[in-house]
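Dear colleagues,

As part of the handover before I leave the project, I'm documenting each prediction I ran so the next person doesn't have to rerun anything. This entry is a single chain, and its sequence is reproduced below.
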Amino acid sequence: MKNTLEAARQEFLLAKYLEGLSPRTVDIYEEIIGRFISFAGSTLDLSDLKAPLIRQYLASLTSCNEVTKGIHVKCLRAFCRWLVANEYLEKNHMDKIPSPKEPQTFPRVLSEEELRALLKVARPSPRDYSIVALLVDCGLRSTELCRLELDGLDLRGRSVTVKSGKGGKGRLVFLSDLTARAISRWLSVRPDVFCNALFTSSRKEALTRSGLQQILSRLKNRTGIENGKRVSPSVLRASCATCFVKNGGDPHSLARLLGHSSTRMAERYVNLLADDVKEIHRRCSPVSRLEGRRER
């Protein structure tokens, strides 16, 4: 029986799912490797998977920018690495293919005035205000915020356990006093539902990523933020990093706050010496600065 690309793809996706990768990551693998298989042929034997064929595929991505091409290369590299590790291939042909050089673009961010406006319109709603405060103060990803659980919250210690979805791993994120008080206010009015999620929807279910974006879009429409600017968790994450740096935060503390395994991304914002991340965050809290308060 031939070892075909399609059969290998199905095994690869199952393996990644069992490793605990987030559904979104598995979906990206499925889409990109699927596109490659459509180009190469689903019945292609794995022995015919060589560097020239991969180069031809990457050259065919004429409508993709360099960032998108880089994602294709990373996915194919992970696929080929898995094929070698599981003895489907003797050598990784992706080793001969360099990653495209990505343009050094700075993430889109909101100004401090726009962030203040967003916090202001969210303030009447305990849930919405604590959501915006968390996104701006801690730079959480949308999936991370939606997966926050009551069991992982420690208001006395001013911290919350954040689950990234990568193999069930979690990290401890510290809260400013103001954000902790906002969450406490939300908990005092949170509906009594059979759900461990910190944030719930109007249907008394765990808040979803689409529900989170709807909240932010609704709040944005009530501010003076121009129509062309998007307000999303990723934009607020970049805005958090920018404010953190402006307030004196260093790349090591920022990398730990954002859940990065290295300081490469954080160093795009600043290049300073490291310090204790909890004390740094208390001093550099973006929400406290925006609301005109100092942490004790």
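Residues 66-85 form the longest helix (20 residues). The first strand starts at residue 153 and ends at 154.

All the best with the project,
I.
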